[in-house]
Amino acid sequence: MEINDIIKPENKVYGKTPVLKDAVMHYCPGCSHGTVHKIIAEVIEEMGIQDKTIGISPVGCSVFAYNYLDIDWQQAAHGRAPALATATKRLMPDKYVFTYQGDGDLASIGTAEILHACNRGENIVVIFINNAIYGMTGGQMAPTTLIGQVTATTPYGRDVKLNGYPLKITELLAQLDGTCYVTRQSVQTPGAVRKAKRAIRKAFENSMMDKGTSFIEVVSTCNSGWKVSPVEANKWMEENMFPEYPLGDLKDR
């Protein structure tokens, strides 16, 4: 059998979406960002909207998304991506506009921006990566850090009396009239990846139907920040993150 017989279209099992650039991803082994990038790119390709999509990334690990997705990008100041997305979508309502934000960004310095954008019902998509830690800057406690979780700034574990409770920002946003679709997904198994991909596609479709804001939380791992292996990180996430941040749709209007 010759090589040309093997690479015939009918023998093709998988092909990388052209929306993903050829750049080698720099993320730590086991990081959820790469998987989420992949399914966003696949959704954009399948919907045929590569030239109509604008991504907005702020500060943190999520800022590097522009290295990997071949679409138009804007960079926002820390936490301000929803405000920039609001302006972009209102100026260009025919574009698919989404933000890509981490928990230290969205649920901390950007709390006001995300609350007000969702309350106004801006027709944007928000993809929220929640790994319960500041991954890029040294593993400090984030608003979503679990009670008792050890971080660089909570070496004895998060203490409610000192640090307060984990912020369930997704539940808060689901209560606002401006949100049309609020869901919590993960990407640690093939089945979970498929569910997350369907959620992202639904969110993009909603953004062009004047329904309001679609918000997708992806419960994720940060094995470097958590100081465990990628395999152990997935197990820790399932045993500790999922009870605090249960998966599934919170709102679908």
Provide a concise account of the structure shown.
It contains 10 helices and 7 strands. With 253 residues, the protein is of the alpha/beta class.
Structure in words:
This protein is 37% helix and 17% strand. 45% of the residues are buried. It has one domain (30-134, 170-252): 3-Layer(aba) Sandwich (Rossmann fold). It is globular. It is an alpha/beta fold and 253 residues long. Helix 2 packs across helix 8 and helix 4 crosses helix 5 (111-120). The protein contains ten helices and seven strands. The chain has helices spanning 3-6, 33-47, 81-91, 103-109, 111-120, 160-163, 169-174, 190-207, 223-226, 230-244, and strands at 53-57, 72-75, 96-102, 125-130, 179-186, 213-219, 248-252. A seven-stranded mixed β-sheet has the order 2-1-3-4-6-5-7, with helices on both faces.
Helix content: 25-40%
CATH architectural grouping: 3-Layer(aba) Sandwich
How large a portion of the residues is in β-strands, by DSSP E?
15-25%
User: Under the CATH scheme, which class?
Assistant: Alpha Beta
Task: Let me know the average pLDDT.
Answer: 93
SSE order: HHEEHEHHEHHEHEHHE
What quaternary form is this?
single chain
**SSE-based structural type:** alpha/beta
Enumerate the strands of the largest sheet in spatial order, edge to edge or round the barrel: 2-1-3-4-6-5-7
**Cα-to-Cα separation, first versus last residue:** 54 Å
- CA radius of gyration is 18 Å
